[in-house]
Amino acid sequence: MLLTYHLYSSDGGRTDIQATSDADAIATAGARTEDHRPAELWCRNRLVRRWDGDELPLFNWPSTPSA
Fold first, then answer.
1. Pick from 5, 28, 44, 56: most CB atoms within 10 A?
2. What domain of life does the native source organism fall in (predicted)?
3. Within a 10 A sphere around the Cβ of 23, how many other Cβ atoms?
């Protein structure tokens, strides 16, 4: 039996995924979250998986020798 999962991205987008199990839905959604942004996968009223995303540094300061 196919279930409908909803992948919500941090930019407000929603993608519907049809899968037979949570594992299949997570695999499909994981391939769609390659931009490393926060996202959540839901099935009905149940949170299946959350991707926190990568925290990017504000600025990569070069290391300088102390004087």
1. 5
2. Bacteria
3. 10
CA pair distance 45, 4, nearest whole angstrom: 11
Give 15's contacts (C-beta < 8 A, 6+ positions apart): 6, 7, 9, 29, 32
Predicted TM-score (pTM) of the model is 0.74
Strand 39-43 with 3-9, pairing: antiparallel
4-47 pLDDT, tens per residue?
999 998 888 999 999 999 999 999 998 887 777 889 999 999 99
Q: What is the dihedral of CA 21, 32, 41, 49, to 10 degrees?
A: 80
